[in-house]
Amino acid sequence: MRFSRTLKTTAALGTTAGLMMLGLGAASAHVSATPTETAAGAYSLVTFAVGHGCDGSPTTAVTITLPDELNDATPTVNPNWTISKSVEKLSTPITLANGSKVSERTASITYTAKTPLEDHQRDTFTLSLQLPDSAGTTLHFPTLQKCETGQTDWKEIPAAGADHDSVEAPAPELTITAAIAEDAHGAHSSTATTSSDSSATSATNDAGTSWPAWLGLIAGLAGLVLGGLAFWRTTRKA
Q1: Residue 219 domain boundaries
Q2: Is residue 154 part of a domain?
Q3: Which of 88, 106, 154, 221 is the most buried (most CB within 10 A)?
Q4: What is the pairing mode between strands 74-75 and 173-175?
Q5: pLDDT digits (tens, 9 = 90+) for 79-103
């Protein structure tokens, strides 16, 4: 009976793992965008991952289009690829937060392979950029993947409220979160709170109230001993 239950449990775990692997495989098939930061106004490194070619054909170029909310991005060097930028003129100059004006913006950045990326191989392309001050906004980065034979235009945007995988070739995306508040000294409020808590704990210990910690340690050791004895007795009975 016990063996039967174990076999059923193992089979269930195997089925679950298989379904998870299928889900991961479907998700990894898309060109994804992974940011290091998402807070409004923050500087972020956004990494775009290409996990396969075009129906078996090696990838020769990847063009990442910047959303209208961004004026520029700095591409990170990838030894196997050359980099080029496409710039567009603005019909109306934009005034930046620092007061300067720009009359053109980077429309897209293209990585061209020195040696085609094989279908079964993966590579990444990282852009450094500053996120706009618009928490709650989702930025889409339409990405054109060209191959030796054919191409895939990852530019589809799901309907409002729909899952990212509801379309066949979704554009890589990221959602901007709320800006991180800073205190009067320019530090993040969460850091200040942590420091205050640490100081308060230190002050409490210095005041001679460390006995609860020792009592907790003794109680924990006693629990381990009692648990070991109970396990030993159960083993002997078995």
Answers
A1: 189-237
A2: yes
A3: 154
A4: unpaired
A5: 999 999 999 999 888 887 778 888 9
